[in-house]
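Assess the record.
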Amino acid sequence: MRLKNTASRYGAIAIALHWIVALSVIGLAILGLWMVDLTYYSPYYRSAPFWHKSIGISLAALIVVRLGWRLMNPRPAHIPDHKPWEKRLAALVHALLYILLAVIVISGFLISTAKGQGVSVFGWFEIPAVLTGLPAQADRAGAVHYWVAISVLVLAGLHALGALKHHFIDRDDTLRRMLGMQSRTPRQNQ
């Protein structure tokens, strides 16, 4: 498998970035939902938010890398059998996912820095608080963070269902290309 995309296939780097982002989003959602119910006396009361923030900041950096890679390394052409509405819907869903992930990161940062403290990233370095003291900053940012995260999970679920529809109903190579698998049709295997 090539590192870079070709006209008909995703490369190893694009595939790895896609799946690392996907698994990180799912993991952060699970961790986030679990940690909000922790009590002060839980042994994870301090460590769970530390990991959530550190992984969240890392995810933000990874998304920037992914966008940069996408700009420098154009994606493969659409599969010829895709309908125009499917192409437009796919573009819209991808754009919304990127925008909503950016909103999640920003709102999470606003929650974490509401009291003027920076965010430690795995204890390696700290990102300073740049915007603090807004009225009810943590509460408002928390509501945005939660609802946008739920929206991302719903949208990602629809994205996954679309890939499964292409794989099992349309029987095309949409999902196979993102899994790094061989094409079903030899003409697309370049």
